[in-house]
Design brief:
By secondary structure, the chain is α/β, with parallel strands linked by helices. It is built from 18 helices and 9 strands. β2 (152-158), α6 (162-166) and β3 form a beta-alpha-beta unit.
């Protein structure tokens, strides 16, 4: 659905830009030749849709109210940038910028209102049948029930395991065995079948499902459907095995080399661009309590290798213990341990600029799972299966988890981190970096 909105928004922006172009030609008597028409249409589309994407407008995890707020905020940003450019170079075009903004706002809001009305009142509910009433089957059923906006209705389970049938404790009923799939699918008008069987299915079960599943019924593996609706990785032995093959394929190795090159150039650029802020931060910290400028702490990197992560010190020297975790979200802005000058450093994440040195050294990457302390790593490694899998890649300055949840549990952190590892690519890295950088600039990047 989000790809449809990207396309519709691009058409809306192109139409608004075309209308403004016509006014330029007719009302203001400005001659715009055909070869100038293409960039006149393409630039607003790229910029406006880019702002929409970076602000998270196309995320499937946002509520309707927040969606419209993000839409208004994004269009305001676009309007402000275009208005400044027009004011500086073409003052007579400022009115046309206002018209462009109004057209884009009205049309995008109208499209989304129509989509919301359709989803709420007219979108048909699709019936879902889950094969396997075990732990995975009940998990995906619960995830679907928690998302009524998906318009999915779990009609029941199929299961050949008599223990699951006898010990059934779910509100969703087991409708039969896999050999009953044809009748169950037909009687319940099932449109989606989710395979939630952990063990390898034998040929008889597979034959029953192939024979009983009509063409046109969408069939999903459970862990893929879980990723689709939650945008998190389902941690199980089967899914982690698949993650292994994704990580060692030749394409992934090429990506790792390319990403390292990008990390080096990006970290150098960030250090140069932020040098004035770093100098001010260093002077301010030194004058605050005459203590050290930097705060270092051992974190766990790729394949469990420890390294010293560097930050600007933002707390009084005598207030910080060795086991203090400066990445925890419960450190509030009014915490008495934070030096007054350093509150603004934390708000805009200026204290994290020295981590670009870690990136240059190869300890970290610009984008990746957030590194944790040694104690946290080893504790979770003992208690959470496959925890060390999140360290198959270099830890990052920013990541997928930070854009989705501010105070993650260990399980949530791992789910988002492994989702990133599975789907990582250079374009997505650039998108995540720009989106997080935008949050940092406006002081809204709360999660670390």
């Amino acid at each position: 659905m989000k790809h449809i909105f990207v396309l519709i928004d691009a058409l809306i922006v192109g139409l608004a830009a075309f209308i403004v172009m016509l006014l330029l030609k007719s009302s203001l008597m400005i001659d715009i030749s055909n070869y100038k028409l293409i960039p006149f249409l393409i630039i607003p589309i790229i910029f406006t849709n880019g702002v929409f994407g970076l602000k998270g407008l196309y995320s499937t995890q946002i509520s309707n109210l927040k969606k419209y707020y993000i839409l208004f905020e994004s269009i305001a940003i676009v309007s402000l940038v275009f208005a400044i450019i027009a004011f500086l170079f073409y003052p007579e075009f400022v009115v046309l910028v206002a018209l462009y903004t109004l057209l884009v706002l009205l049309m995008t809001v109208f499209v989304r209102l129509c989509a919301d009305i359709y989803n709420k009142f007219f979108k048909p509910v699709k019936n879902v049948l889950i094969v396997g009433a075990g732990q995975d089957g009940k998990l995906i059923a619960e995830e679907i029930k928690q998302r009524p906006e998906l318009k999915l209705n779990v009609v029941g389970f199929l299961d050949d395991n008599m223990n699951n049938i006898e010990d059934e404790d779910s509100s969703i009923k087991i409708l039969g065995l896999t050999c009953d799939s044809e009748a169950v699918i037909k009687d319940n008008d099932v449109k989606i079948v989710i395979i939630a069987v952990k063990s390898r299915m034998d040929s008889d079960i597979l034959t029953d499902l192939v024979k009983g599943t009509p063409l046109g019924v969408k069939v999903w593996r459970m862990y893929r459907f879980y990723e689709k609706i939650t945008q998190k990785f389902l941690v199980s032995k089967m899914s982690v095995n698949w993650l292994f093959y994704d990580c060692v394929r030749r394409k992934a190795l090429f990506y790792a080399y390319l990403k390292r090159v990008c990390d080096i150039f990006s970290s150098i650029a960030i250090l140069i661009l932020t040098l004035p802020f770093s100098i001010i931060a260093a002077i301010g910290i030194k004058l605050s309590d005459l203590g050290p400028i930097f705060f270092t702490q051992t974190r766990i990197g790729k394949f469990g290798k420890p390294f010293k992560m560097i930050k600007f010190r933002t707390m009084y020297q005598d207030k910080v213990t060795d086991d203090f975790d400066d990445d925890l979200a419960e450190v509030q802005s009014d915490d008495k341990r934070i030096m007054p000058f350093c509150k603004i450093l934390r708000k805009f994440h200026i204290d994290e600029i020295p981590q670009m040195i870690n990136v240059l050294r190869g300890d970290m990457s610009i984008v990746g799972p957030r590194p944790v302390r040694e104690e946290v790593y080893y504790e979770n490694k003992e208690n959470i299966p496959f925890w060390e899998c999140r360290n198959w890649v270099r830890p990052g300055w920013c990541g997928w988890q930070q854009l989705n949840v501010n105070e993650p549990t260990a399980e949530q952190r791992m789910g988002y981190d492994l989702y990133y590892i599975k789907h990582q690519n250079l374009i997505w890295d650039i998108y995540l970096f720009i989106r997080y950088a935008c949050k940092v600039i406006i002081g809204k990047a709360r999660g670390k």
